[in-house]
Amino acid sequence: MKYNKIVFGIALIGIIACKEKEVEIAPSVIEDTTTIVTDVEVLNDTTILVGEEQTEVELTVYQDGKPVKNPDDKIGKTYTEKVPKVEQDPGMDNEAKELSKTQPDKAIEQVKVENAPKQADQPEAKVESKENIKPDHGAFNQMLKKYVSASGDVNYSAWKKDMGGLEDYLEELSKVRTEPLSGKEAMAYWINLYNAATIHKVLENFPLNSIKDLNGGKVWDTKIVEIAGGKIISLNQIENEILRPVYKDPRIHFVINCAAKSCPPIDNQALTSDNLYAVLEQRTKEFVKNNRYNDITEKKMEISSIFDWYKEDFGDLYTFIAKYSGVDVSSKTKVAYKKYDWSLNGS
After folding, report:
1. For the chain, domain boundaries
2. Considering only CA atoms, which of 289, 282, 290 is closest in space to residue 255?
3. Of residues 96, 8, 94, 21, the one with CA closest to residue 55
4. pLDDT value at residue 10
């Protein structure tokens, strides 16, 4: 490619000062988005070299509305160029923009100072985004051990006097984005969030006889859970739009707690990525084998309504029940579902 010597100064963005020749930039140049030219080398269609600095631009020069391919004989002339107006330049503050209209040289110098690299001995402080943190379930784990028995009974009356820790925990969870988390971390996060939000809802309204006394019996459809970005969602959204369809693990039903006596007992430990699968397996087996929730024989099984409400999650129900109950049930085994007790799972 044959290089052409042209005169080119970008008055619009006000950041390139030519080294070989001073250019006087008229205010009208900036306002009208036109260009005055000095010494530069044309390298290609989109790049010019000014002194030692390389800048990406659209190098289409016009005269009288027509492109000029060889502007050697147009030195010192003014040409219109397709570039943004100076008001769109993020490098200029308001003061510089005003200066550019009346004293363009000073405006250029100010932009140079504003865009100057920071000194090595003054590094820019790194601030970690609150919404990039990983969830810490330690505080929730301590609360569960303190206020929940091994059998899953919740001491709501005592916990109500000490709600601050739970509220702090929920606030921290609301700052966590789950996208960067591993599958196990995210799954543990959503289960803990569901349980903590349910407990908090009960504590806010305690004493009460049943969680179904709240929100006209539709507490699970009420948006009460804050997540990253300030979005508010419901408990049903966590369960039916995230946990069930994303993870497709039927054991989830035995670790999320609806604050009712017929609900699988809440564990007195928080879930983490380390204990998740072990707890899922343990709590499922304990629930299925517990006669309080399920009566299972080879001839007949009277089981929790959970197996009816979410039957599509369990695949072949007989295979699932046989695996966790240890009883050899089959399609010949009669099935009935127990009435659900919605009384509060604690006092």
Report:
1. 5-114, 131-287
2. 282
3. 8
4. 35
